[in-house]
Amino acid sequence: MLKSSALTARESEAAFDDVRREYEFSDADFHVLARIAKQRTGITLADSKRNLLYGRLSRRLRALKMSSFSEYREYLDGPQGEIELERFINSISTNHTKLFREPHHFDHLRDNIAVPYAQAVRNNRAGRLRIWSAGCSSGEEPYTIAMVIKREIPDCARRDIRILATDIDTDVLTKAALGEYPVKMMEEIPEIYRGLVQPKNKDKSSDTMVMSEDLRSMIAYRRLNLMDHPWPFKGPFDAIFCRNVMIYFDAPTKSNLIERYTQLIKPGGWLYIGHSESLLGAHPGLELIGRTVYRRV
Ligand SMILES: C[S@@+](CC[C@H](N)C(=O)[O-])C[C@H]1O[C@@H](n2cnc3c(N)ncnc32)[C@H](O)[C@@H]1O
């Protein structure tokens, strides 16, 4: 007798994937790797992220000349595990970003932090200014913050102004510290800030642009896993940007992180989160001021 050829939607999808896939990727492979991701980074990978995880990690299997995900799982468990974990994390993190992304945050930063600081400079009252870009990816966010500050405070390099830029992914941090981007990204920069970025070669024919020394000198790049306890700095910060990072975390992780940010922001300081995010639950230390902009009360 012929076996029934009727497959459930899930089975046909799995069968289809197996045909296309170079490596077998079992439920157990997915669940074990997703659990490691959650434990080590806070990143939650729902079932719908199965193909994404497969695609990103199969590159690691190829690079390591492995023939199966179970071999890769054993490798992560073995003596090389901690070293491979860095590559694993770099592979699973999503780093999409751009200069002046969600631009109203930078208008707010200009009006509420940079302009008052410039006024304090004129009155000889300027003190410390600290901003943290938490989950800075390849640097576009901290360079944007630096551009806004530099334009309002031209002598920023002589002032006590620092931007701390952290990420868990070491590949993007290397790129960020280099401060070089394709020249076509100039289009993302509003006209008034374009003078702060130069073509790499003086003849202007270069397809690479470089962030100016004043911008770079304000920023300190560090690897930091936001899940670490405690963080190796105490603040306080005038503002924290944590945009499009917490979308990858579950509600308790996100809530805990917001509490920790709140403790580090000066009273009257600011928290900026991504446009598709909202603060879950009550955070009495924070007051919603505008779209995805919160003030520490
Ligand atoms: C989508 S990017 C956002 C970049 C930038 N903030 C923006 O909005 O354009 C998210 C970044 O969060 C980082 N990230 C994810 N989990 C992290 C963790 N546990 N600790 C630190 N950074 C993390 C990723 O490596 C990635 O670079």
3D architecture notes:
The protein has 297 residues and is an alpha/beta fold. It folds into two domains: 9-92, Chemotaxis Receptor Methyltransferase Cher, domain 1 (Orthogonal Bundle), CATH 1.10.155; 104-296, Vaccinia Virus protein VP39 (Rossmann fold, 3-Layer(aba) Sandwich). The chain has ten helices and ten strands. The strands form two sheets. A seven-stranded mixed β-sheet has the order 6-2-1-7-8-10-9. The N and C termini lie far apart (73 Å). Bound molecules: S-adenosylmethionine.
Offer a quick outline of the entry.
This protein is an alpha/beta fold and 297 residues long. It contains 10 helices and 10 strands.
**Percent of residues in beta strands:** 15-25%
Q: Which percent range fits the helix content?
A: 40-55%
What's the pLDDT, averaged over the residues? 92
- Main structural class: alpha/beta
User: Given this structure, which CATH class of the largest domain is correct?
Assistant: Alpha Beta
Chemical compounds bound to the protein: S-adenosylmethionine
Note the topology.
Blueprint (H helix, E strand, L loop, with lengths): L8 H12 L6 H15 L8 H14 L5 H9 L3 H12 L11 H19 L6 E6 L5 H13 L8 E7 L2 H9 L1 E3 L14 E3 L8 E4 L1 H6 E5 L13 E6 L8 H14 E9 L12 E5 L2 E4 L1
Parallel strand pairs: 1-2, 1-7, 2-6, 7-8
Antiparallel strand pairs: 3-5, 4-5, 8-10, 9-10
Please name the defining characteristics of this protein.
297 residues, alpha/beta, Chemotaxis Receptor Methyltransferase Cher, domain 1, Rossmann fold, seven-stranded mixed beta sheet, three-stranded antiparallel beta sheet, 10 strands, disordered N terminus, binds S-adenosylmethionine
